[in-house]
Amino acid sequence: MSDRQAELDALLVRIAAAPDAEALRAIERETLEKEGVVARLLASIPTLPPQERKATGQWANQMKRAVEEAASARRSAFEAAALDAERSGAGFDATIPGKRPERGSLHPVTRVTRELEDLFTSMGYVVLDGPEVELDWYNFEALNIPRDHPARDMQDTFRCDPEGNVVLRTHTSPGQVRAMERMKPPFRAIVPGKVFRQETTDASHEHTFHQMEGLVVGRDLSVGHLIGAMKTLLRGVFGREIEVRLRPGYFPFVEPGFELDARCPFCTEGCSVCKRSRWIELLPCGMVHPNVLRSGGIDPEVWSGFAFGLGLSRLVMLRYGIDDVRHLLSGDLRFLEQFA
Ligand code: PHE
Fold first, then answer.
1. Is 170 helix (H, G, I), strand (E, B) or coil?
2. Residue 89 C-alpha to ligand 1 middle, in angstroms?
3. Angle at which helices 37-44 and 50-87 pack, to 10 degrees?
4. What is the best residue among 157, 169, 251, 281 to mutate for testing ligand 1's pocket, by most ligand atoms within 8 Å of CB?
5. What is the dihedral of CA 221, 117, 170, 205, to 10 degrees?
6. Is the distance from the beta carbon of residue 193 to the nearest atom of ligand 1 less than 6 Å?
7. Quick one: DSSP state of residue 15?
8. Alpha helices, DSSP H only, in 88-152?
9. Residues 14-55 pLDDT 10s
């Protein structure tokens, strides 16, 4: 045993005296690695008389630990010395620019969502959230779209259970009914969020995209109020007055229902964005159907409302001139870094 101890002591002395990191590595290699002292010791165990095996094993481990500790201490000493040398001026250049930390940036959808949230809150709307995995009741039934109604064909739905009671929401409109359940009229609310449809994807269709629902409930609301609200919205987004027009549109949860077009904000003579028509299809909207108010526990004899469905993904594409909706969820840094 004392021979061994002497061998180890000698090793430790060599480590403490190692002149540089390379010399230190060499000592570690000859002790700790494949053919090193420790490995050889361990390999010899099966050839030893049984009563010596345990002690030899323990010694090998003890040796390994001692060498590791000593080497690590020596290495710290090298590093401290290097740092001292740097600090004392040798090889230290205070003028070299630092490493720039990598910075993330907000996703364009998040950005536009936040801007609109700010705008709507300034107009007295509250921002609500709703579940992405939604009950069929909120997504369809309560919105005046009964089972077996042909309007169900308008939105191809991911269903989450065999009975079809749970779906991935196909729009943010379930937020209308949830808002009515949560708030006392009169109120104004927006519900931004992710929605899902079973789509074959292409440049303008994606299975996952973003919408922002708007709902205003009050007394004696009319289409005039709806148009007024949308014009205020456009003034907020584009910083000037923008002409709008309504075309009839069918959605079972609004009556009457409309498609609202805005004068193309990008041109005066027609451009690629408005496809030379000078109008941009902005959003579907309408006066909340009495059945929907009833679903939300609101008396349609007393209260009326209007609702609109902003296509957030589409708005983001318009805003930044993005030509393929699939970029939005690609996670491709070459795309995302453009919004830093
Ligand atoms: N939820 C409808 C859709 O996604 C849009 C809409 C919202 C229509 C609100 C009218 C009122 O197609």
1. coil
2. 68
3. 170
4. 251
5. 120
6. no
7. H
8. 108-122, 136-139
9. 899 989 889 889 888 888 888 888 888 888 888 988 898 898
* Token duo for residue 29: 């290699």
Specify the residue with its C-alpha closest to ligand 1, atom 4: 171
Q: What is the pTM of this model?
A: 0.72
Ligand 1 atom index nearest CA of 311: 4
Rounded-to-integer distance, Cα 308 and Cα 226, Å: 9
Pull the structure tokens for residue 20: 């540089």
d(CA 273, CA 277): 9
Place of tokens 């949230």: 117
310/89 Cα distance (integer angstroms)? 62
Query: What residues pair up with 254 in beta bridges, in sequence order?
Result: 288
Task: Give the single-character DSSP code of 159.
Answer: B
CA of 211 to the centre of ligand 1 (A): 9
The H-or-E segment that residue 291 falls in is helix 290-295
* Burial class (CB within 10 angstroms; exposed 0-12, middle 13-18, buried 19+) of 196: buried
For residue 187, list its beta bridge partners.
217
